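Incident review: delayed structure delivery

Summary: a single-chain prediction request sat in the queue longer than the usual turnaround. Root cause was a stuck worker, restarted by the on-call engineer. No data loss occurred. The affected request and its eventual output are reproduced below so the record is complete for anyone auditing the incident later.

Affected input:
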Amino acid sequence: MDAAKALACLDKALQRAGDGSTREDVLGQLLSGEATVIHAGGAFAVCKLYQGEKLTAHAWIVGGDLKAVMGPLKQQAEHWARLNGAELATISGGPGWARLCRDYEGQGDLEKVL
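Output delivered after worker restart:
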């Protein structure tokens, strides 16, 4: 995926997320190391680690080809989370994500024990 296509996918994912985050917010967090991008096939996830009751890997923004998201991207993101010591994985998303990620639980932000 070239840079122009990646930015277009990011913009589309930000519109769907609806949390008020901007491209500049995301790029700033990527440049500062607060977030990372995991890429697989035609899909990407912007992920962050944070410490709550458990170290959590959070897929903040996800975009691209749905088949890649549900296959290799999900596997790579969970692998990255485990490598970084996360005990819990979460995904920001609406009702559609709950139907697709059946191994995750919850409403709104979905979670899975790793």
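Verification: Residues 3-113 form a domain with the Aminopeptidase fold (CATH 3.40.630.30).
Action items: add queue-age alerting; document worker restart procedure.
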